[in-house]
């Protein structure tokens, strides 16, 4: 709906900026922003908060380097914050009434400056306000202000006016889009698009098909069904459903929420939850830098718990995890985090201004002490490096990219030690999101695909006989085309003849009505001139009787009408024509 409500999309309230920043950052990094406070004048923030984020970064003691520049953080925060129904999530529905400008209006109203207030009242598209309406608005404001009294008349009226602005906005939208709001209108179901995958939430589809009945879905998992399956299984039953394209959008460092089919509930794709978990373990708690030697059996048990609760290894369609499940996924690590909290660990160093090399990455992995947990980790550096390099946003790789490279190198090592995550990610079609990772299952699939294509090619070769048939058909088509061309030629010859005839007729019909004999170049009727009894040749000029249209030699006709009145053929009078004829 946001496309109908035209508001500048880079303006937000400071509350929303700080709340979304608080939720976007890794919990361990929150102390870096805790001491930061905004001055009251910074209530409305423009440019997606880039300036304020710059101040925050400057004051964060380099703790927030993972998020890149203020510009990058502002952009990612915007992506993360601006999902459909985000206002329900952040509970910002009332923000509109608390904006700075409203306070200004209030003070103007309190000071009796009604004209200014009235001029602020929005004008809707195509309905400009006349002077008379403007002064009527002023009068009403004055009157109502007096009735409401001095105490908080201004406050109440400001609220009322803003409500009425909203209502007018909404009713305009509803009037212009009756289909969207009428009860008989089509039901909408979101089609989520993620890469080449297209899927819908089962519960949402079921709700649309069965007129409001609810599907009993898992409490924490919202399953989906692919669009191909929807078309195959439900076919005609979904004809009246409008499918709304809903791309899955991702911020760089935290999964973006999606509104669930239930009122006020939100969820994220399960794969995104796994990435958030891994980011928490790797970047936030530095588990694999601190926890040495790692008790892989113990850790696998914790992973198994996650698999059981959240990451269904067998599920081959994407599915969502409810917002609340994040706590279930992470709380099992509480003891582990407690145990390693006091172990010191090195921070990722800054990349140079002109980026970093594969060797820099290898050195960094060693510097961070990761070869203790993952002796082979530097072997992945090259593949990870080229994948990160391929995705870099700026001209050079930056510190934020180095964080990514270190993050993904560790994911590959974890996957190799705990293959259930591999299967999960593969079945959810998320393998490409692990930078530098080569999935054996994906490779096998592409090998199978290749051999299938090879087979298809071979079977094509077997069809060379039908290729001959094709040749014969082609020849036949050519013959037909040739014939067609001949017919066309003939046709055009005929039509040019018809045109000539028409021209002739035209020149006959367009004879000056007073000129009864006219010049005609005749090729058609070969007969005798009734005046001289000799043949009318095909090229000579003739004149004809306007009544019987009998032709005579021009010379004969001119001579004839000097002393005769009647046509030799029809005996009609030629006298008038004798007088007016330009030949006479
Ligand atoms: Zn929080
Ligand atoms: Zn818990
Ligand atoms: Zn795969
Ligand atoms: Zn003649
Ligand atoms: Zn005649």
UniProtKB/TrEMBL annotation:
Q: Does the keyword Cell division apply?
A: no
Q: Which PROSITE patterns match?
A: ZF_RING_2
The residues forming a coiled coil are 470-504
Keyword Metal-binding assigned to the entry: answer is yes
The UniProt entry's GO CC annotations, sorted and at most eight, read:
membrane raft
Q: Which UniProt keywords apply?
A: Coiled coil, Metal-binding, Zinc, Zinc-finger
Annotated GO MF terms: zinc ion binding
GO terms under biological process: innate immune response
Cite the RING-type domain residue spans from the record: 529-571
Query: Which protein are we looking at?
Result: RING-type domain-containing protein
The organism named in the record is Caenorhabditis tropicalis
């Amino acid at each position: 709906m946001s496309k109908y409500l035209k508001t500048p999309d880079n303006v937000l309230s400071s509350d929303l900026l700080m709340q979304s920043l608080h939720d976007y950052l890794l919990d361990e990094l929150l102390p870096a922003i805790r001491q930061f406070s905004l001055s009251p004048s910074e209530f409305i923030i423009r440019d997606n908060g880039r300036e304020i984020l710059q101040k925050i970064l400057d004051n964060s003691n380099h703790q927030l380097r993972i998020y890149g520049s203020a510009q990058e953080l502002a952009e990612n925060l915007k992506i993360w914050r601006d999902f459909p129904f985000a206002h329900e999530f952040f509970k910002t529905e009332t923000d509109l009434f608390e904006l700075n400008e409203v306070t200004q209006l209030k003070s103007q109203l309190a000071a009796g400056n009604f004209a200014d207030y009235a001029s602020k009242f929005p004008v809707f598209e195509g309905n400009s306000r006349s002077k008379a309406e403007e002064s009527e608005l002023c009068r009403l404001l004055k009157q109502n202000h007096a009735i409401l009294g001095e105490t908080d008349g201004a406050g109440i009226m400001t609220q009322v006016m803003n409500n009425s602005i909203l209502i007018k906005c909404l009713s305009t939208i509803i009037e212009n889009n009756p289909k969207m709001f009428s009860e008989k209108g089509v039901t909408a179901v979101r089609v989520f698009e993620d890469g080449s995958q297209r899927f819908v939430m089962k519960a949402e589809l079921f709700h649309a098909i069965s007129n409001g009945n609810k599907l009993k879905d898992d409490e924490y998992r919202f399953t989906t069904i692919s669009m191909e399956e929807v078309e195959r299984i439900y076919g005609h039953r979904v004809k009246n459903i409008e499918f709304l394209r809903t791309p899955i959008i991702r911020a760089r460092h935290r999964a973006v929420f999606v509104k669930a089919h239930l009122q006020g509930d939100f969820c994220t794709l399960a794969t995104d939850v796994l990435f958030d978990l891994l980011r928490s373990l790797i970047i936030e708690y530095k588990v694999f830098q601190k926890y040495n030697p790692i008790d892989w059996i113990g850790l696998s048990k914790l992973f198994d718990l996650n698999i059981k609760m959240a990451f269904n290894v067998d599920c081959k369609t994407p599915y969502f995890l409810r917002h609340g499940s994040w706590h279930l996924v992470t709380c099992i690590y509480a003891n582990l985090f407690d145990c390693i909290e006091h172990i010191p660990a090195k921070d990722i160093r800054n990349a140079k201004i002109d980026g970093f090399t594969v060797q820099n990455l290898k050195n960094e992995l060693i510097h961070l002490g990761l070869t203790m947990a993952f002796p082979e980790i530097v072997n992945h550096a090259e593949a990870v490096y080229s994948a990160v390099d391929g995705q870099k946003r700026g001209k050079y790789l930056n510190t934020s990219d180095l964080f990514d490279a270190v993050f993904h190198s560790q994911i590959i090592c974890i996957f190799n030690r705990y293959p259930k995550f591999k299967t999960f990610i593969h079945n959810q079609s998320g393998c490409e999101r692990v930078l530098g990772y080569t999935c054996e299952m994906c490779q096998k699939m592409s090998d199978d695909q290749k051999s299938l294509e090879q087979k298809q090619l071979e079977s094509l070769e077997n069809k060379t006989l039908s290729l001959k048939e094709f040749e014969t058909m082609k020849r036949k088509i050519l013959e037909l085309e040739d014939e067609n061309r001949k017919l066309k030629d003939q046709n055009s010859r005929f039509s040019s003849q018809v045109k000539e005839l028409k021209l002739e007729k035209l020149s006959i019909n367009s004879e000056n009505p007073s000129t009864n004999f006219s010049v005609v170049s005749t090729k058609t009727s070969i007969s005798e001139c009734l005046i001289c009894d000799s043949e009318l040749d095909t090229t000579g000029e003739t004149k004809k009787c306007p009544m019987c249209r009998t032709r005579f030699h021009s010379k004969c006709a001119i001579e004839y009408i000097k002393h005769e009145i009647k046509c030799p053929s029809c005996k009609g009078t030629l006298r008038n024509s004798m007088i007016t004829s330009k030949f006479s």
